[in-house]
Amino acid sequence: MIAGTGPARLSACCVSGSVSQASSTPPTTLVDGVWEALRTVRDPELDNDVVSLDFVADCSVTEDGIAHVRLRLPTYFCAPNFAFLMVADAWDAVSQVDGLADVDVALIDHFASDAINAGVAARAGFVHSMAGSEVGEAVEELHELRRSFTERAMMAGTDLVVRPLMRAGATPEQVAGMTLGDAPDSADLRRLRARRSELGIPADDDAPLVVDPVGRTVGLEALPLHLRKARSYQVGVDANTSICRGQLAARYGL
């Protein structure tokens, strides 16, 4: 087995499923592909990937091409809906890595891990996965939750792109008339474009820079309030990220 990190305690209930037929790709190459796939999986509340957040406790690929991934969270009682999304997204992302014979993804050290892992393995959806479990009943699937936090991420991303422009001297009138193509290229701008695309909001160079969560242009009059809201979302993301990193470090001695 080629390990990506140190050993982790494994959950009794894992996620597995059939993926593309294994090739002769060496495990060392395959594990690199699995890590890259995991970088596309985000904590929806923190808008950061599970690798950067150190939520991947273990990542390895066996000689016969089976990927094993173990996810961990900052506390035993982290929200099960967010946990479910991350496990499901990790399974989907890793399953797309060419050359793997099988995928095994599990959440560990979490009060709802059994229900989440079994539900994702069965492609049962969040409501069915929670039904009859000790976690409690779920009343709806997570599509709206995902969209809501993607909208928040877009608003926070707007703050990260616009605030430097205004610090550099751009006036509200100028910002209100800018397009995405007018903003300097940066990692924050690329992330903002990505979140807009996920929401079905135009993200090309000609699209307005500042829009609301449904894609409507924010005019000059509404701009100050909109930017204050955007700033509040980014402050919330920063605060929650700091708290989660601290809790994770304390829990696992990182």
Work out the count of structural domains: 2
CA radius of gyration = 20 Å
CATH class of the largest domain: Alpha Beta
Task: Kindly identify the CATH topology of the largest domain.
Answer: GMP Synthetase, Chain A, domain 3
Got a strand count? Answer: 7
CATH-wise, what's the superfamily of the largest domain?
A: Fe-S cluster assembly (FSCA)
Structure description:
This protein is of the alpha+beta class and 254 residues long. The protein folds into two domains: 2-141, Fe-S cluster assembly (FSCA) (GMP Synthetase, Chain A, domain 3, 2-Layer Sandwich), CATH 3.30.300; 143-243, no CATH class. Helices cover 45% and strands 11% of the residues. A five-stranded mixed β-sheet has the order 1-5-6-7-2. The chain has a two-stranded antiparallel ribbon with strand order 3-4. Residues 1-22 have low confidence and may be disordered.
Descriptive key words:
254 residues, alpha+beta, GMP Synthetase, Chain A, domain 3, 2 domains, 5-stranded mixed β-sheet, two-stranded antiparallel sheet, 45% helix, globular
Write a short abstract of this structure.
By secondary structure, the protein is an alpha+beta fold. 45% of the residues lie in helices and 11% in strands. The longest helix has 30 residues, at 223-252.
Question: How would you summarize the topology of this molecule?
Answer:
Blueprint: E1 2-3, E2 15-18, H1 27-38, E3 42-43, E4 48-49, E5 56-61, E6 66-71, H2 80-95, E7 102-107, H3 113-121, H4 126-130, H5 143-167, H6 172-177, H7 187-198, H8 223-252
